[in-house]
Design brief:
The complex is a heterodimer. Chain A has 13 helices and 13 strands. By secondary structure, chain A is of the alpha/beta class. Chain A has a single domain, classed as Alpha-Beta Complex (Amidase signature (AS) enzymes). In chain A, the strands form two sheets. Chain A has an eleven-stranded mixed sheet with strand order 1-5-2-6-8-7-12-13-11-9-10, sandwiched between helices. A two-stranded antiparallel sheet of chain A has the order 3-4. By secondary structure, chain B is α+β, with helices and mostly antiparallel strands. In chain B, about 40% of the residues lie in helices and about 20% in strands. Chain B has an eight-stranded mixed sheet with strand order 5-6-9-1-10-11-12-13. In chain B, helix 6 crosses helix 8 and helix 10 packs antiparallel against helix 11. Chain B is elongated and about 95 Å long. The chains are: A alpha/beta, B alpha+beta. At the A-B interface, helix 8 of A face loops of B.
């Protein structure tokens, strides 16, 4: 992914990426292209290279940035009309770190408004189309980021998404790429438009585990501007790639209850095959039962709706150039504001919010216990492959249930990545989810890479050899 | 306050602005007395998307100090909650406060008049901005947004307007002496919400509670309580039922006015603040704060009374932090008699001259000055003049420059007395003194003093005249 050969300039790379982004406009990947700023940055990088100056680990590499990250003097809408006129005076820590590493943002990627959705159908700026099948959804909420990476046109090698309850993993799964949700706090949230503070994480989307790891290593680390951030989850960018797995045999726990009713047969089949392949790679695979998982989706929607109602209270119609009426918020955002305020209101707080937090604690304890017996947990990422655009739009509950597998790690604060696990007979990608305990991020990526290497192409295609 | 039929019960919530350099959760400057609107507001105070609060450690320290001053337990574990309401001066749509786990637990405030008021708890929170209404428009100033406050919540332990006022004044002194706050009422560093209820004495239940919010002077606290007592007694006498409500104090009309009833009370939808990790203090942290605790006025009050200063003088001194601290040093360096002389200078001379802007004389200067008076080198009147001018030099140098030193040299005085006694104007008085009319002695002393331009030591002069005549 590096500009190692120096046979192409950063300007050429950025121009190429912008040309492809425009050529792919029918996919509705970007809310805004940041062309001028990107080219100026590329010229700076080229000048540095020419002068023999130190350039970072991602020098000249173009990337897509989810539209909920602030960048200097750049519109940041979080795909919501209420922020249509907001131009950020600040830069998110993640964007700053990427800039220091030489990466160049070419545009702000489409998403479900404020992250409210699993399909990128809830954007105020239109649906983003799936990279493999244009009639299907991209997944969400980091849909634009995923398609920018996954599209055969090869627009950018990586993108920054965010993951509150599956927003990086779901679109990774639907588009056949890698999506990372780090340990909570491993990457600074400073400058990320908040959805739900206690589960918001900064994630990335990449074509393989190695690229994802490099990006995560660049953006991770404690930040004085985010009191919940921590150090030492990821290694430094120049650390050797396979350091954390080191030939060891891992105990893999396949969560059996997530392979039953309501999960597509082909998704189940691909997941079981992936588990089989893990055995062949020398790991030990067993089944694990986590009864509290059945409450994960209800807890998730109580807690994150409460937090989003609170975080979105600042869009009160006084600032940001718009009032709260009309299309300022999409229907799903309004729904979650109402749910959130309801569960926090006097008389309901104990019955909903407090109870949800208590059950969340039980879920955390149950998962902690599971990790005393297993190193990594394995599930499908999504219960189904990418649905047709509009297919699930009528019933919000269908969308919420899509978070069945991705919500638990979010509530517990543990890392989880979605990696490709082959495809359906119809050629649609299936993703599986690898879950680790807090701080196990590098281990998950090393495992994913080991699995990729079992195939000639270096990308796991499914099937058992 | 009582009339024979009714007793009043008062509880007070007091907001104290902490004297930190920056705000509770942002790096913006805290002191905006000299600032233009919105100069001291950062993107965190604006509540911009993506901004995260970072707790100011100094605010935690000062809150702990105030807690110790309140003789309260410092809770090693506390946390913040979000309190939601929509108002243009609250850009995030919520205020960060500590509803469930405050940093300061139960405490006690002893009033100079002998009463005791228990503190239920005190918590850290951030202030909102300020709105100014100009015709049709409303201007928003966020300089105050995010300012660290400690809200001190008392138990309903007060029963008169005087006690209420006294309690507020004690809080102000605790805040100032502990160094937690400038506690400047004029600049809104302290604000009081006073809860008042009226019931028959000995009644099992308190009467209906009425809260008078946002009072910003001691006098207004007293007046508001008096007014509410009369108003509520009036309603009870008339047999009118009234519900819980929030009222405001109208300074111009000197009365309380209704703002909202309990039915209109807001639902704040409290929620734990997920962006600020829970506060966990080490035992050593509290010990450190205790070790750095400046001397409190309660200690000084005891000390000053013990050396025999009158209550009024003591309270006057305590009202002036700098003078009280200097007095404390003086007491430590000298005897009670000298200390009393200095106390008298401070309370009757220094304060009367309104020289508060100039530097308070050092202990060394004060003791030298007192010694000069004791040694007869300076009259007590002259000493007062020197006191106010000591910023330019030692008392002796100032006295010399102003030609205020008393002449006590026997030889010089004798010479002067002889010269005066020889004057024709003295003749009659000399004769009178000789005849035993001692009133005339005073006249002769006066003549000598005049001759010396006030610098002769009158005691010595009198002795010399006696011996000569």
């Amino acid at each position: 992914m590096k500009l190692a050969s120096k046979s192409v300039s950063a300007v050429e790379m950025v121009k190429e990426a912008l040309r492809k982004a425009k050529a792919a406009s029918e996919y509705n990947i970007f809310v805004n292209l940041t062309e001028e700023r990107a080219l100026a940055r590329a010229e700076e990088i080229d000048a540095k290279i020419l002068a023999g100056e130190e350039v970072g680990a991602l020098a000249g590499v173009p990337y897509a940035l989810k539209d909920n990250y602030l960048d200097l003097k750049t519109p940041t809408t979080a795909s919501a009309k209420i922020l249509e006129e907001f131009v950020s005076p600040l830069q998110a820590t993640v964007v700053k770190k990427l800039e220091e590493a030489g990466a160049i943002c070419i545009g702000k990627a489409n998403m479900d408004a404020f992250g409210h959705g699993a399909f990128t159908e809830n954007s105020a700026y239109g649906v983003t189309k799936n990279a493999i099948d244009k009639t299907r959804v991209a997944g969400g909420s980091s849909g634009g980021s995923a398609v920018a990476v996954a599209l055969a046109l090869d627009i950018v090698p990586f993108a920054i998404g965010s993951d509150t309850g599956g927003s990086a993993r779901a679109p990774a799964s639907f588009n056949g790429i890698v999506g990372v949700r780090p340990t909570f706090g491993a990457v600074s949230r400073y400058g990320v438009v908040a959805f739900a503070s206690s589960t918001d994480t900064v994630g990335c989307l990449a074509r393989d585990a190695d690229d994802a790891r490099l990006v995560m290593r660049v953006i991770a680390g404690e930040d004085a501007r985010d009191s919940t951030s921590v150090n030492d989850v990821y290694y430094q960018p120049d650390t050797p790639r396979d350091i954390s797995l080191d030939g060891q045999q891992l105990r893999i726990g396949l969560i059996a209850s997530l392979l039953g009713e309501g999960v597509d047969a082909e998704v189940v089949a691909r997941t079981k095959e992936y588990a089989e392949k893990m055995k062949q790679a020398g790991h030990e695979v067993g089944e694990v039962d986590l009864p509290m998982l059945q409450y994960a989706v209800p807890i998730y929607y109580v807690v994150t709706s409460a937090e989003t109602a609170s975080n979105l209270a600042r869009y009160d119609g006084v600032r940001y150039g718009r009032d709260r009426k009309g299309d300022s918020f999409v229907a799903e955002t309004r729904r979650r504001i109402v749910i959130g305020n309801y569960v926090l209101s006097a008389g309901f707080y104990d019955a909903y919010y407090i109870k949800a937090q208590k059950v969340r604690t039980l879920l955390i304890e149950e998962m902690r216990e599971a990790f005393s017996r297993f190193d990594v947990l394995l599930t499908p990422t999504m219960p189904f492959v990418a649905p047709k655009i509009g297919e699930k739009a009528g019933d919000p509950l269908l969308g919420y249930l899509a978070d069945l597998m991705t919500a638990p790690p979010a509530l517990v604060g543990v890392p989880a990545i979605s990696v490709p696990a082959g495809e359906t007979a119809g050629g649609l990608p299936v993703g599986v989810q690898l879950i680790g305990w807090r701080g196990d991020d590098e281990k998950l990526l090393a495992l994913a890479e080991q699995m990729e290497n079992l195939t000639k192409e270096g990308v796991y295609k499914g099937g058992v050899a | 306050m009582k009339n024979n039929k009714y007793e009043m019960t008062i509880g007070i919530e007091c907001h104290v602005q902490l004297a930190t350099a920056t705000k509770l959760f942002s790096g913006a400057k805290n002191d905006s007395r000299e600032a233009v609107p919105n100069e001291n507001a950062s993107p965190i105070d604006w509540g911009l998307p993506g901004m995260l609060p970072v707790l100011n450690e100094r605010a935690v320290e000062l809150a702990a100090r105030l807690g110790l001053a309140l003789d309260a337990k410092i809770n090693l574990a506390s946390r913040f909650d979000r309190k939601h309401y929509f108002y243009p001066d609250l850009p995030s749509g919520f205020q960060r406060t500590q509803l469930y786990e405050p940093i300061i637990g139960e405490g006690l405030v002893e009033l100079p008049s002998g009463g005791k008021v228990r503190v239920e708890h005190a918590h850290l929170e951030e202030d909102a901005g300020k709105l100014t209404h100009v015709g049709e428009k409303t201007l928003v100033d966020l300089n105050r947004a995010g300012t660290p406050l400690v809200e001190i919540v008392s138990m309903p332990d007060m029963h008169s307007a005087r006690e209420a006022r006294e309690y507020c004044q004690e809080l102000q002194k605790l805040a100032i002496y502990s160094g937690a706050s400038d506690a400047d009422l004029y600049h809104g560093n302290m604000r009081f919400d006073v809860n008042i209820s009226v019931a028959e004495p000995g009644a099992k239940k308190l009467g209906t509670r009425v809260e008078v919010k946002n009072i910003n002077s001691f006098k207004a606290v007293e007046r508001a309580v008096e007014y509410e007592f009369k108003r509520q007694v009036g309603l009870i006498e008339k047999g009118e039922k009234f519900g819980q409500e929030t009222r405001g104090w109208d300074e111009n009309k000197q009365k309380t006015v209704s703002q909202r009833s309990k039915e209109e009370a807001m639902d704040y939808r409290y929620m734990p603040e997920p962006d600020v990790p829970p506060v966990r203090l080490a035992e050593g942290f509290v010990d450190g704060v205790r070790a750095e605790m400046p001397v409190l006025h309660t200690v000084l009050r005891h000390e000053f009374l013990k050396i025999g200063l009158g209550e009024a003088v003591v309270e006057t001194l305590l009202d002036n932090h700098g003078l009280a601290l200097r007095m404390h040093e003086v007491v430590g360096e000298t005897d009670a008699k000298t200390a009393k002389r200095v106390a008298d200078w401070f309370s009757s001379v220094w304060l009367a001259a309104e020289v508060t802007s100039t530097e308070i004389p050092s202990v060394a200067q004060l003791l030298e000055l007192a010694e000069m008076v004791a040694a007869g080198e300076l009259s007590s009147t002259a000493a007062k003049e020197v006191l106010l001018k000591m910023s330019v030099g030692s008392p002796r140098a100032v006295a010399e420059k102003l030609q205020l030193l008393q002449v006590s040299d026997e030889g010089a005085l004798e010479e002067m007395v002889e010269r005066v006694l020889a004057l024709p104007a003295a003749a009659k008085a000399v004769a009178d003194v000789k005849a035993g009319e001692m009133k005339a002695l005073g006249f002769l002393v006066g003549l000598v003093m005049k001759e010396s331009k006030g610098q002769a030591n009158p005691g010595k002069v009198q002795g010399i005249i006696k011996s000569k005549v």
